[in-house]
Design goal:
The chain is built from six helices and six strands. By secondary structure, it is an alpha+beta fold. The protein has a domain of about 80 residues: 60s Ribosomal Protein L30, Chain: A. This is 40S ribosomal protein S12. Belongs to the eukaryotic ribosomal protein eS12 family. One of its GO terms (cellular component) is ribosome. GO terms for molecular function: structural constituent of ribosome.
Length: about 150
């Protein structure tokens, strides 16, 4: 494939993701987050929890930050948002509603034989330090950041 064909493919993905609603062939933002977190977990590229996340954000290792909106401590929210919005780094920030769901996506659970999650631990913040391999979910997430 030549460089122009690769650019055309990337432009087509931008149009699909920017449309908002996920059609049958498209990847929704939640699916993209789930896939990126799974891939980063396999490659030891996740910082889970507030302490590890703040370390990764402060050291500049972070690629993207995913924060739970249901945190009761306002100081936690302000700290993570301030670290993400530093002018030197400008790390993309995504907010999700449920801490248990974020914990399940980040691998803070046990899976039974059927593959359903058991004993899920809630997680307030997850930072992706290493994407792992390139995937369709990663491209969809990057295109979402560019369009936003």
């Amino acid at each position: 494939m030549s460089d122009t064909e690769i650019e055309n493919v990337v432009e087509a993905q931008e149009v699909e993701v920017a449309a908002g609603s996920a059609a049958p062939g498209e990847i929704s933002i939640e699916e993209a987050i789930k896939g990126v977190l799974r891939n980063a977990l396999v490659h030891q590229g996740l910082a889970r929890g507030l302490r590890e996340a703040v370390k990764a954000l402060a050291s500049g290792e972070a690629e993207v930050c995913i924060l739970c909106e249901s945190i009761t401590e306002d100081g936690y929210l302000k700290l993570v948002e301030a670290l993400c919005n530093e002018p030197e780094t400008k790390i993309p920030l995504i907010k999700v509603a449920d801490a248990k769901q974020l914990g399940e996506w980040a691998g803070l659970c046990q899976l039974d034989r059927d593959g359903t999650a058991r004993k899920v631990v809630g997680c307030s913040c997850v930072v992706v330090k290493d994407w792992g391999v390139d995937s369709a979910e990663r491209q969809a997430l990057l295109n979402y950041f560019q369009s936003a």
